Amino acid sequence: MSHDNPQHRSAMSSLDTFTCVRCGLTVAASAPDGGRRNHCPSCLHSQHLVDHVEGGPSDCEGRMTPISIAVLRTGDWMVVHRCVRCDELTSNPVRGDDNQLILMRMAVRPLAQPPFPLEAFGDL
Amino acid sequence: MTRRGARTAGRRPQRAKDVLHGPAGTRGDAFRCVGCRLDVSVVAPGTAHRNHCPSCLVSLHVDRRVPGDRAAGCGGRMTALSLSVRADGEWMLIHHCLTCGELSANRIAGDDNALALIRLALRPLADAGIPARVLLAL
Q: Of the candidates B84, B103, B124, which has its C-beta nearest A71's C-beta?
C-alpha cells in the first residue's frame, strides 16, 4: 500500500508519486483509470503501509510480493499480496496499466505445476 | 516428477498441531463443515493443518496467525478465493472471511476435491474480458 496513509489521501493529487521498493521505478500514485494505485505497475510489488486488520497506518513497511490472482463476482481481477516481513495478506484491484505478462503468469501458474494429473478432467 | 524432489530438499518439517478441537476442551478428531455439513476428520493425507472441508473447500475463521492458535474472535465462514503456488510447487488455498474480510493461506490436502480446485485455478481464465485482452496485448 504505497503511501496510502491519511495525510497523503487528504492531499491526493494527480502529481503524487512513489518509488517502488523492489524495482525503484517512480510511478504516479493515480492510475489512468481514475483509481489510486498501491502497487508498482511494472513488477506489481507493493509496500505494507496500511494495517488491514485495525485500519490506519501499519508500522511494518515490509515489501509485499504478488502471490496470486483472485476474481470477483463482477469478473474484475484482484492481486493478492503477501508481506515478506509479517506474512499479512491483502488484495488490491488490478489497474489498467499493470504488467500483463506478470498478471497472466500468475493466473496460469497453478496449471503449470498441478499436484494431480489433469488428464482425467478431459473425460468429465 | 520434479515436485517430489523439491519437497525433500531441506524444508523445515511442519509444526505439530496440539490444539483442542472439541467444544468443552475435549480433544476432537473431527469437525463439521459450515458450508456443506460434511463430517471431516482432522487427520488428512499430505498436511498436518487441515483447516478446510475437502469437499467444498469452505473454512471457518478461528485461527489468527499460527495454525491452531484459536485466537481470532470472528468465527465467520471463509470461502476459497484463489490459488497461489509456492516456489516449490505446492498449491496454497487463499481463503476470504465473509464476516470480516480477512485473508488467509493454507496448503491443500491430498484428499481435497480436485474438481473444485481446478475450477478455482481456471477462474481467472474463464471470463472472456480481461484474459482475452491481456493475451492480445502480449
A: B124
Global pTM?
0.80
- Please indicate whether, in this complex, the C-beta atoms of B134 and A104 are within 8 angstroms of each other: yes
List CB contacts of A98: < 8 A, sequence separation 6 or more.
A39, A41, A44, A79
User: Is A121 among the domain residues?
Assistant: no
Give domain status of residue A56, yes or no: yes
Cell 498478471, located at residue: A103
- Prediction ipTM score: 0.79
Nearest CA in chain B to A101: B138
Q: For A40-92, what is each residue's pLDDT tens digit?
A: 999 999 999 888 767 778 888 899 999 999 998 888 889 999 999 988 899 99
A124 to chain B: which residues are within 8 Å by CB? Answer: 115
Count of the separate structural domains present in chain A: 1
Q: How far apart, in whole angstroms, are the C-alpha atoms of residue B132 and residue B125? A: 8
CB burial of A54-91 (b: ≥16 within 10 Å; e: otherwise) equals eeeebebebbbbbbbbbbeeeeebbbbbbbeeeebbbb
Q: Is residue A117 part of a domain?
A: no
State the Cα–Cα distance between residues B70 and A78, nearest whole angstrom: 28
